[in-house]
Specification:
It is elongated and about 120 Å long. It has 21 helices and ten strands. The protein has a domain at 7-316: Up-down Bundle (ABC transporter transmembrane region fold), CATH 1.20.1560. It starts with 9 loop residues before the first helix and ends with a helix. By secondary structure, the chain is of the alpha/beta class. It has helices at residues 10-13, 17-47, 54-103, 106-111, 114-156, 158-165, 169-205, 207-212, 216-268, 274-286, 288-316, 327-330, 380-385, 411-416, 432-436, 445-454, 481-494, 511-524, 537-540, 560-566, 569-587, and strands at residues 340-348, 357-364, 369-374, 394-401, 404-405, 418-421, 499-503, 529-533, 545-550, 553-558.
Length: 588
């Protein structure tokens, strides 16, 4: 029967069962060789009064030398084949953990702190590795040595063995007294370490805000408090081992005193040979490391179990946005053309009480350009995020692409067919070229150059020290907002999507650059369905259809001229922007 606590490790350890079997064999060989040494000394000491010949002495010396060779080879074997697989298990868990992170959706990461997740993938994983390697090694080593030593001690003198073993049950009492409390305290330490990691991550990510508001000293004090609490929690564990380990050593000391006292009396009474006395005490001394190792194993085991439990929480989390049940029916044949339709569609975020979108009915033909405008918070971005299924809360009605319900289209096909450019695009700490080529593995240099030109990034390349090979820094820290948006746009254009979503993607650009980019897109992305979310109505006027949202509802729709004639919200927005521009020119 496999203990429940070991089961999470088995799928990872099974892959390296041969290596671990070799390591276990080497460990057993080492332990058996170690048990042979006191017995050889017993035979040797008992021979000395008989004036043994040189050949007999050389025989025992050779046996001890041969045993030492076995010990050396065995130690090398278990170090290589026990510690090696533990590193590989760590490697496999980390790969699986990272792959699982990539399957989870926005909902999960909105509920979690990034620093906590990083802590689980680093600190907790190290604890798992220590348990798989060192913890299992000490556990097996201690078990074999304890059983072997006790059996040989009983063989030498059962009565003295019984007397020596009387104090040892105290160890078991201490073990069962402390093990549950140690587990709880280790769990608290791991969770607090995650808090510290999260605080460091947040402070580094928001370093400019801290500098701007002169909050460095306050953050130092807060981190110092967290650090002091971390030390306190670790000391609570240390206090338990401060009782456990000395008690263990004291118990062994009492056993050694009994062994020397009773063994010496037995030798004097000729009930026991001097060699047997030497061997008996040798085996008793060999028990000291395994008995102390019990405390170390408890520590490693509890840390490993707490850590693996926190990692298992991530593995047990599943994405809420998944492929639908009938996905396989369209997986091989479905090709996105670009016809979009919302039918009586309503949507509410999981944490919200009111609907973000309400009774949306909208049809967009293939190749059509649609502009979505409205006040802040009217639901424009939410509407766009429904297309790549970035969110799926409480829904009624349906979203269709090429007459197929969007849930029936495999996520891989759906998202490969959509180019999405956000107002605040995310750039990786790679070169500009690598950031642009992110969504298309087979992109040629010519393809990338064309995307750069269409995105209006070409004039900026001369400002970069290494042009397209320039490293942009974390989150593109070395770039302006407009440069980030154009790199993100080039990345989306390089995908050659069937549907292009521009969510306020030109907010950091001037009107002239914006106009040139839109002309490039209209030529390059012909027959591509384009959804533009914007606050600049100068962009919207060229769209085939304009949708005006207010409080999650479509209040107006039509072309620029039609909406101006209607004299509704759109017309008011156009007049307001025109007045603002006129005032700006006057002030200049």
């Amino acid at each position: 029967m496999i203990p429940e606590k070991i089961k999470p490790y088995l799928p990872f350890m099974a892959k390296y069962k041969r290596e671990m079997a070799v390591g276990m064999t080497a460990l057993l060989m080492t332990d058996i060789a170690g048990l042979v040494v006191p017995w050889l000394l017993k035979e040797f000491v008992d021979l000395l009064p008989k004036d043994p010949s040189r050949s007999i002495l050389l025989k025992y010396a050779g046996l001890l030398f041969l045993t030492s060779i076995f010990l050396a080879v065995g130690r090398y074997g278990w170090r290589k084949y026990m510690f090696g697989p533990s590193r590989k298990v760590e490697f496999d868990i980390l790969n699986k953990l990272f792959a699982h992170f990539l399957t989870l959706d926005k909902y999960y990461f909105h509920r979690q702190k990034i620093g906590d997740l990083i802590s689980r993938a680093t600190n907790d994983l190290r604890s798992v590795r220590d348990f798989v390697g060192l913890g299992l090694l000490i556990l097996v080593d201690s078990s074999v040595v304890i059983i072997g030593c006790v059996c040989l001690m009983v063989w030498i003198n059962p009565a003295i063995t019984l007397a020596v073993m009387l104090p040892l049950p105290l160890v078991s009492i201490l073990f069962f007294t402390f093990v549950k409390e140690i587990s709880k305290r280790h769990q608290a330490v791991q969770e607090h370490l995650a808090k510290m990691t999260a605080r460091v991550q947040e402070n580094i990510a928001g370093i400019r805000v801290l500098h701007a508001f002169v909050q460095e000293e306050n953050e130092k004090k807060k981190f110092d408090e967290l650090n002091q609490e971390y030390i306190h929690k670790n000391l609570r564990i240390t206090k338990l081992f401060g009782i456990f380990t000395p008690s263990l050593i004291f118990t062994l000391g009492v056993a050694a005193v009994l062994s020397v006292w009773l063994g010496a009396k037995a030798v004097i009474a000729e009930e026991m040979t001097l060699g047997a006395f030497v061997a008996f005490n040798g085996y008793l001394m060999m028990l000291s490391w395994p008995m102390m190792g019990i405390g170390y194993v408890i520590n490693l085991t509890q840390k490993g179990q707490s850590a693996m439990g926190r990692i298992q929480e991530i593995f047990s989390s599943q994405p809420e946005i998944k492929d639908g049940e009938v996905t396989e029916q369209v997986a091989d044949s479905f090709q996105v053309e670009g016809r979009l339709e919302f039918k009586n569609f309503s949507f509410t975020y999981p944490t919200a009480e009111t609907a973000a979108l309400n009774q949306i009915n909208l049809a967009i033909a293939k190749g059509q350009t649609v502009a979505i405008v409205g006040k802040i918070g009217s639901g424009k971005s939410t509407l766009a995020e429904m297309l790549p299924r970035l969110y799926e809360g409480s829904q009624t009605g349906g979203v269709f692409i090429d007459d197929a319900p969007i849930q029936n289209i495999p996520l891989s096909i759906l998202r490969k067919s959509i180019g999405y450019v956000d107002q605040e695009p995310f750039l990786f700490s790679l070169s500009i070229r690598a950031n642009i080529a992110l969504g298309r593995d087979n992109a040629t240099p010519e393809d990338i150059d064309k995307a750069v030109q269409d995105a209006g990034l070409l004039p900026d390349l001369d400002r970069f020290p290494d042009r397209l090979e320039t490293i942009v820094g974390e989150r593109g820290v070395s770039l302006s907002g407009g440069q980030k948006q154009r790199i993100a746009l080039a990345r989306a254009l390089l995908k050659r999507p069937r549907i292009l979503i521009l969510d306020d993607a030109f907010s950091s650009l001037d009107a002239e650059t914006e106009g040139n980019i839109l002309k490039n897109i209209s030529v390059t992305m012909e027959q591509v369905t384009t959804v533009i979310i914007t606050h600049r109505l100068s962009i919207a006027r060229e769209a085939d259809q304009i949708i005006v949202l207010d409080h999650g509802e479509i209040v107006e729709r039509g072309t620029h001229s039609e909406l101006l004639r209607a004299g509704g919200m759109y017309s008011t927005m156009v007049k307001s922007q025109a007045l603002a521009q006129q005032m700006e020119i006057t002030l200049k």
